[in-house]
Amino acid sequence: MSNQNISNKILYWYDNNKRKLPWRKKTSIKNREYFTLVSEFMLQQTQVATVVPYFINFIKIFPNLKFLANANEKEVLKNWEGLGYYSRARNLKKTAVNLLINFNGRLPKDIEKLKSLPGIGDYTSRSILAIAHNKPYIPMDGNVERILKRVFLLKKKKEISKENLNKKKSFFGYSKRSSDYAQAIMELGALICKPTLPVCSLCPLTENCNAFKKKDFIIRSKNKFNKVKYFEANIYKQKNKFLLIKNKKFNFLKNLVIFPMEEINKKKFNHSDYKKINVKMSNMNMKILINDNKKIKKTRNSVLLDKTNINNYILPSFTKKIFSSLTN
Ligand code: SF4
């Protein structure tokens, strides 16, 4: 089967099955560039379903590049709250300023110029070129990788290397509808060639797929499982208010407001009678002991928060979870 047929089959499937996503709305070329920029930043490390409500809200508050470039960074971070990886929000804001000053508010069509912008690496620049500028790129995300691994039944370490997967991308061939085609392949991976249970009965690639022929859908991955880390959160309460501090200590979620805490070992965690909570982060599983029996002196960076003023601060999800376990 020719690669032309592959692209026709995938695009036919896409035209009939694509999700209605807010950044795919028909709009002006300039807005499309902006929507692509914001959605691609949000989609780095985050799933589509999680991103949708954040994107809708973000576009309401910052409807175009100029608004975002002129916005206060605190306001941008506030509207990113809960999405995690806050450096993305800071970089998005910096990129908006940079585009306004150096590129007349437009996204460059040159990959090196795109890569020179804060927060835009190889993958995001290819996505932008394909989706916003209709250039013939197929960005290699987890969905595209999975389809290739199954179509060619790639299992060995060498076979699943980035280099080999990039070579295998020629399987997809080419379409003049580059923007739709890049999105179509990723969509096929997300909706049909799913990680655990692929829906082969609805897939346009069954004739070409070795995993389907051999009924072997197991995916080999280089990614390790998330590490489990143990923490003790120290709770200082004054009337109904809790003491929180700016995170200067941990490398994750720097400068956001957290309960004073320290990393502890598994033994201490397991042997403690204090309340425990689990929080799944995108890069680790946090197991947190809530020690509400400790007296801590106030520090220069501390704030006292209760239900009435907590929303004025940008809080990581684990801080919110500790807070609600204390107040409910
Ligand atoms: S046939 Fe099944 S395994 Fe093969 S690409 Fe399609 S959904 Fe994935």
From the structure above, extract its key features.
about 325 residues, alpha+beta, Endonuclease III, domain 1, Nucleoside Triphosphate Pyrophosphohydrolase, 2 domains, 4-stranded mixed beta sheet, 4-stranded antiparallel beta sheet, binds iron/sulfur cluster
What does the model show?
The protein folds into 2 domains: 3-214, Endonuclease III, domain 1 (Orthogonal Bundle), CATH 1.10.340; 227-327, Alpha-Beta Complex (Nucleoside Triphosphate Pyrophosphohydrolase), CATH 3.90.79.10. The chain has helices at residues 3-17, 29-43, 48-61, 65-70, 73-78, 87-102, 111-115, 122-131, 142-151, 162-168, 178-191, 210-214, 266-271, 317-327, and strands at residues 227-234, 237-238, 241-246, 257-258, 261-264, 275-280, 284-291, 302-305. 43% of the residues lie in helices and 12% in strands. A hairpin with a 2-residue loop joins β2 (237-238) and β3 (241-246). The N and C termini lie far apart (61 Å). The chain has 328 residues and is an alpha+beta fold. The model has no long low-confidence stretch (mean pLDDT 92). α1 (3-17) crosses α11 and α9 (142-151) crosses α11. A 4-stranded mixed sheet has the order 5-1-7-6. Strands 2, 3, 4 and 8 form a 4-stranded antiparallel sheet that branches. The structure holds iron/sulfur cluster (SF4).
Overall 3D shape: globular
CATH architectural designation of the largest domain: Orthogonal Bundle
* Poorly predicted spans: none
Helix content: 40-55%
How many helices? 14
**CATH H-tier superfamily of the largest domain:** Hypothetical protein, domain 2
Q: Major β-sheet, in short? A: 4 strands, mixed
CATH topology heading of the largest domain: Endonuclease III, domain 1
Structural class: alpha+beta
Q: If strands are numbered along the chain, what order do they take across the biggest sheet?
A: 5-1-7-6
Could you spell the SSE succession in H and E letters? HHHHHHHHHHHHEEEEEHEEEH
- Distinct ligands, ions and cofactors found in the model: iron/sulfur cluster
Question: How many domains would you count in the coordinates?
Answer: 2
Q: Give the number of DSSP strands.
A: 8
- Name the average pLDDT: 92
Rg of Cα set: 23 Å
Distance between the termini: 61 Å
CATH level 1 class label of the largest domain = Mainly Alpha
Strand portion: 5-15%
